[in-house]
Amino acid sequence: MFTRALLAILLLLTACSSDDRLYKTEGHVFGTTVSVTIYGGSQQRAELLGGDVLREFDRLHRKFHAWEPSMLTALNDSIARGQLFRADAEMVGLLKSAEKLSVRSGLLFNPTIGHLIRLWGFQKNDIGAQGPDDAEIKRWVDAHPSLSDLRYDGNTITSVNPAVMIDLGGYAKGYALDRAALILREAHVKAALVNIGGNVIAIGKPGERPWQVGIRDPRGEGTVAQIALRDNEAIGTSGDYERYFMKDGKRRPHIIDPRSGYPIDMVASVTIIAGGGRDPGLRSDGHSKPLFITGPEGWQAMADKLDLKEVLLVDAQRQVHMTPAMRARIEAAKP
Question: Has 222 been labeled as part of a binding site?
């Protein structure tokens, strides 16, 4: 569903006693590998908490899946039929927060273009080369779906535009990170690192050093940089190297420009760091998409618009661009 293995997690720590051991619980949710690494305490407690987090991930995966039967697909079916849908407070809250980001980004972040995502063949597990008809692409672009088309009456949702098809693939993983952080903080863990296919959130500090993560090279096996991730910070990457296909010599990734209806081929990856507040995971996931779409020429203006200070972009020619704050963060993390 939300597949992108985007960050190499480098746990550069040495366990010395039962109080500073690392316990890692792994699973496969959201169509990708997920892990919960807990610092300190007992193995039994770490496994219990890791299990709690994985169960929460599974709940969200089933609830917000974009094409297998879920609450989200039921909402989309109701929108297509012009009917009202009785959701719940969690779904309404997530959609309203996504709408705020969509408006701030000038609709470049637009989770309602599910018809275009499906047309390009990305709403399935096995991706093959697609060549959608230009007229069909234009049809869905000209329909101008947006989250502003939704109307709310409590937890009941309707849409004034039947072309709306919501796909939260670029948002739900970030929400899941924040839910995981809440579960672990309420359990008073000393420190933890949660990784959903490369989207990562940090809790506390494991001993004397912060958590260390590496930003993956989108065209190689290694990393382009290492970063120390502090408490309540999340790092997220949008990349073109997991969910994509090649056609006519062009790479077609799953990130689609809602203005043209075509996948973006100018950017290899965008990584951002978000910190503070109750939703750093959500921001680290959603905010990278508009920067990816604006590309090498427009990403800095979009970063300013979204108040993003720490951004690293690798373009399709493997040139690395970054904000001064991100450069300073990377320099500080060097041995």
Answer: no
| Residue 309, domain CATH | 3.10.520.10
Q: 161: which residues sit within 8 A by CB, 6+ positions away? A: 143, 144, 145, 146, 149
Tell me the whole-structure pTM to 2 decimals. Answer: 0.92
Per-residue pLDDT band at 7 (split at 50, 70, 90): very low
DSSP string, 240-294: SSSSEEEETTEEEES-B-TTTSSB--SEEEEEEEEESSS-HHHHHHHTHHHHHHH
Are 229 and 212 members of one domain?
yes
What is the pLDDT averaged over residues 140-144?
A: 98
- CA 38, CA 45: separation in Å to the nearest integer? 9
Residue 113 tokens read as: 């273009």
Q: Which of 111, 137, 159 is the last residue of a domain?
A: 159
Q: List, in sequence order, every residue forming a beta bridge with 195; answer none if it has no partner.
A: 35, 200
Hunting for tokens 């969200």 — which residue is that? 60
285 appears as a binding residue in the annotation: yes
Cα 133 to Cα 141: distance, rounded to the nearest angstrom: 13
Domain containing 39 equals 23-63+189-333
**Mean pLDDT confidence for 241-251:** 85
